[in-house]
Amino acid sequence: MSGNGSAKPNTFSIDEREVDIREGETIFRAARRLGIKLPHLCYSPKPGYRPDGNCRVCMVEIEGERVLAASCIRTPTPGMKVKTQTDRAKTARRMVVELLLTDQPPKDVAHDPQSEFWQTADRQKVTASRFPRRAAPAPDRSHPAMAVNLDACIQCNLCVRACREVQVNDVIGMAGRGYGEKIVFDFDDPMGESTCVACGECVQACPTGALMPATLVDAANVRTQFPDREVHSVCPYCGVG
Questions:
Q1: What does DSSP say about strands 172-175 and 69-70: parallel, antiparallel, or unpaired?
Q2: What is the pLDDT tens value at each position of the chain, 241 positions in all?
Q3: What domains lie within the chain, and their CATH numbers?
Q4: Cα-atom radius of gyration of the chain, to the nearest Å?
Q5: Phi and psi (nearest 5°) for 91?
Q6: Residue closest to 172 by CA, chosen among 180, 158, 62
Q7: How many Å apart are CA 36 and CA 25, to the nearest integer?
């Protein structure tokens, strides 16, 4: 890659910086190579997680195109000019975060105030939503190892991909359509009565605190314990303690 000069046949530009196009690499990942950090919630860099483009927090502007593009699923083409810091792109990203914030519990009683979602909201300087909140679903504490708080769910589908594609357990899915869409376990069973094997992959993937280790939350499903260090392990059950 180079900073100046005319574009080469197999390159594109991000914020006027020339980047070589790599097979299968998205704009999001190319931006990371340049040290450009775009916000994300439904994307995971961990092995086995395909990008889905659900949350739209990573949108960028592409010269000559009418609509913004989700950078985590869009692959570049030669000569493409991507802009990540235009007013339009930044305003759209903040609006997406504000819309997602609408149905979240307030941060002072959030299930996990240190979650990726709240860190993203802080970085985008979004502290409140002007939109009306819908009725919150009831918490589910039927599982001995995991607490389910779907009032914090943004339907990013990371838990679905974690369960179905990474661990291949096929327990978590989506049900309903539009406004009534929601995460379900098996046939909309309580998590503790589902075929969940408590591997913990969905808990590790969730960016909001909608799925939490039961040992870390209090009776109101608010996180009260935080780790002082991280330990890499090959044990599939270590994710839930």
A1: unpaired
A2: 444 555 567 999 999 999 999 999 999 999 999 999 999 999 999 999 999 999 999 999 999 999 999 999 999 999 999 999 999 999 999 999 999 999 999 999 999 999 999 999 999 999 999 999 989 999 999 999 999 999 999 999 999 999 999 999 999 999 999 888 999 999 999 999 999 999 999 999 999 999 999 999 999 999 999 878 877 777 665 555 4
A3: 14-92 (3.10.20.740), 104-213 (3.30.70.20)
A4: 19
A5: -65, -40
A6: 158
A7: 15
The residue type found at 196 is C
**Nearest by Cα to 120 from 140, 142, 104, 143:** 104
Nearest to 143 by CA among 226, 225, 199, 209: 199
In the predicted model, what is the mean pLDDT of the chain? Answer: 93
Residue 138: both structure tokens together: 């009831």
1, two tokens: 């890659």
User: Which structure tokens are listed for 163?
Assistant: 């369960």
- Evaluated on CA atoms 100, 102, 105, 110, the torsion sign reads positive
Q: Of 55, 34, 27, which Cα lies nearest the Cα of 43?
A: 55
Residue 75 to residue 89: CA distance in whole angstroms: 18
